[in-house]
Amino acid sequence: MIIPAKFREGLGEQFVLTRGLDQCLFGYPLNEWKVIEEKLKALPLTKKDARAFTRFFFSGAVECELDKQGRINIPTSLLSYAKLEKDCTVIGVSNRIELWSKNVWEQYIENQEDSFAEIAENMIGFDI
Predict the structure, then answer these.
(1) pTM of the model
(2) Which DSSP string do the residues of the chain spell out, in sequence order?
(3) Is there a contact between 37 and 30 (Cβ–Cβ < 8 Å)?
(4) Which domains does the chain have, with CATH numbers?
(5) Could you give the angle at the alpha carbon of 85 between the alpha carbons of 80 and 87, nearest 5°?
């Protein structure tokens, strides 16, 4: 897969790709991955949800390296998880990129459009 040029500099030549939420893949620059890794390591092992999320997140993680044309190889397990086939959508979200199947992305947007105002209203408590 070709990573769009506008995201390559932020990711660096090597970055971590893992299972994301909502059936997409998350791509993190190595420095951001280290921050997330430290936070997840600090979660209590006694909490079932913490163990489950940490397993889910780390077990899919792979280090990717961009070739000279900005391409990466994505393992089959991640392709299957995100239903990535022919048409893909790449979006930038703060400190990461997200790789989506075009169909899954379009369905996600369609499902969220109706509730966007409600979501925005709920974000008020986060001082945004």
Answers:
(1) 0.88
(2) -BPPHHHHHHH-SEEEEEE-STT-EEEEEHHHHHHHHHHHHTS-TT-HHHHHHHHHHHHT-EEEE--TTSB----HHHHHHHT-SS-EEEEEETTEEEEEEHHHHHHHHHHHHTTHHHHHHHGGGGT-
(3) no
(4) 5-101 (3.40.1550.20)
(5) 140
Mean pLDDT within 11-39: 95
* pLDDT tens string 51-79: 999 999 999 999 999 999 999 999 999 99
25 — pLDDT class (breaks 50, 70, 90): very high
